[in-house]
Amino acid sequence: MESKLYVGNLSYNVTEEQLRALFSQAGEIKEIALIMDRDTKRPKGFGFVEMTTQVEAQKAIEMFNEHEMDGRRLAVNFARPKEDRSGARGSQRNRY
Prior knowledge:
29% of the residues lie in helices and 31% in strands. The protein is an alpha+beta fold.
């Protein structure tokens, strides 16, 4: 069962510590990852919070989806599995 959450529409000012303080209200946090732009090193406005159980993850969705934080309404839902992008580019390149 999945316990990793996608957290979107984050203010660029939100820190990992602020997310930890917020999501710890729903249960124990396993890991937090704020996604940064590779070139500018600035936040991209989304991240992932992994709770220790699916029950805690569901509780976090109920508590924080549409929750206002730093003037923005959060989008919180279960994270989709990461797509394998490595093969797609290579196979297209080989077709030409």
